């Protein structure tokens, strides 16, 4: 008999989540971004999770955790009312709607906080995901992370607009 897959749920960030979110962050970068970033860039990017600032950023933003059977499998954070700072999903659940659920929630929260639009600095890997959701590219960026240059694209979506 076929068994239904568990449905993801959302909950707020707790300080005790930092180690598992750091592991999701690293796994996501290592396994999902290889077509867009070289190994040195990935290693520099992943090292950000080893810094104490990683946990402080999660705590200072509005961070949501996606769970399956109570275990975290992804997270997303909203900085202020109108900027998605982080969106990471464990590779084992990539393509199963976890990122969509997280961004849907952040868009609703941003709208509820009065934001008229939402921006994100999307990695080259995530750019297509955000474009499908109605985000439009605004500008290309190059940022230095641990002595490596990484490119991303600032994208913007007007909230309340049809997708």
Structural overview:
Keywords: Transferase. InterPro entries: Acyl_CoA_acyltransferase, GNAT_dom, N-acetyltrans/Recomb-assoc. GO terms for molecular function: acyltransferase activity, transferring groups other than amino-acyl groups. The structure is a single chain. It contains five helices and seven strands, in the order βαααβββαβαββ. The chain has helices at 18-32, 39-47, 52-60, 98-112, 127-132, and strands at 9-12, 62-68, 71-79, 83-89, 117-123, 136-145, 148-158. The chain has a domain at 9-115: Gcn5-related N-acetyltransferase (GNAT) (Aminopeptidase). A hairpin with a 2-residue loop joins strand 2 and strand 3. Helix 1 runs antiparallel to helix 2. It has 163 residues and is α+β, with helices and mostly antiparallel strands. Helix content is 33%, strand content 34%.
In short:
By secondary structure, the protein is an alpha+beta fold. The chain has helices spanning 18-32, 39-47, 52-60, 98-112, 127-132; strands spanning 9-12, 62-68, 71-79, 83-89, 117-123, 136-145, 148-158.
Percent helix among the residues? 25-40%
N-to-C CA distance: 37 Å
Number of E-type strands: 7
Give the structural class: alpha+beta
Low-confidence runs? none
The Cα radius of gyration reads: 15 Å
What is the mean pLDDT? 93
According to CATH, the fold-level topology of the domain at 9-115 is Aminopeptidase
Tally of helical runs: 5
Order of helices and strands: EHHHEEEHEHEE
Fraction in beta strands = 25-35%
At the first level of CATH, the class of the domain at 9-115 is: Alpha Beta
CATH homology superfamily name of the domain at 9-115: Gcn5-related N-acetyltransferase (GNAT)
CATH architecture descriptor of the domain at 9-115: 3-Layer(aba) Sandwich
Order of strands across the biggest sheet? 1-2-3-4-5-7-6
Largest sheet features? 7 strands, mixed
Which descriptor suits the 3D outline? globular
